[in-house]
Amino acid sequence: MKPHLAISCGDPAGISYEVVLRSLLPGHQAARLVLFGHWPTFAALQRQFPSDDVPEIELVDRPTRTARNVVQFVSSDGPDGPIDGPGLDNANAQLEALQAATDAVLDGTCDALVTAPVCKSEIARIQPDFVGHTEYLAQRCALETDDVTMVFASDNLTVGLVATHVPFRDIPATLTPKNLHRTLKHIVQITRALRDVALPHIGVAALNPHAGEDCLLGLEEHDILTPFCRAFDDLNDIQIFGPIPADTLFRDALAGKYHGVIAAYHDQAMIPLKLTGTGATVNITAGLPFVRTSPDHGVARDIARTGRADPRGMQGAIATALRLIPRP
Question: CB 3.0-4.6 Å disulfide test: which of 126, 172, 277, 309 passes with 281?
Answer without folding.
Answer: 277
